Amino acid sequence: MTITDTKSAARKAAFAARKSAFAAGQGQAAQLLADFLAPHRHRPLAGYMAMRTEIDPIAAMAAHAGPVGVPVILGPGQALKFREWTPGCAMIEGDFGAFIPKEGAWIDPEVLIVPLVGWDRRGFRLGYGGGFYDRTLEGLRAKRPTLAIGFAFAAQELPEVPIEATDQRLDAIITEQGIVTF
What we know:
The chain has 182 residues and is an alpha/beta fold. The chain has a single domain (3-181), classed as NagB/RpiA/CoA transferase-like (Rossmann fold, 3-Layer(aba) Sandwich), CATH 3.40.50. 27% of the residues lie in helices and 22% in strands. The chain has helices spanning 3-24, 29-37, 58-63, 132-143, and strands at 45-46, 68-72, 81-84, 91-93, 99-101, 106-107, 111-114, 118-119, 125-126, 147-151, 172-175, 178-181. GO terms for molecular function: 5-formyltetrahydrofolate cyclo-ligase activity.
């Protein structure tokens, strides 16, 4: 079995777990995320617009005192860029159906809330397979310390995420059941 096959099987299991967890509700996850972000309130933050059964970080993003951006996909094989977002700003549909601000400045985040499909206790995440966040984190971390916070349901935890040399570790994971730092 190749690493691609292993990751595909892990994604399938994690998507099913996420769907069930989503139906049960987010619980205190957004408040835990906001509390975790509080010491970083003036640093540029990147969040995301939740899609389908992703856990939703909007409340924590709206509470952030510094600039907040959301990811914009420029094209396959490229790092993400982040367009400034504020509650109520005009949004349009971007690639893969994710909503992005219609206009706004580009921000260079120092703290990222990272969506994911699965995660493990080593700090690795399983994404959607495009490598966007791995490329983005690698580039940002080459410039300065960058905090990557996975945001997910506890049910998305996997025994071990299959990894490759290009996979970037998270610094923390926040779920409705608590905070794990790596």
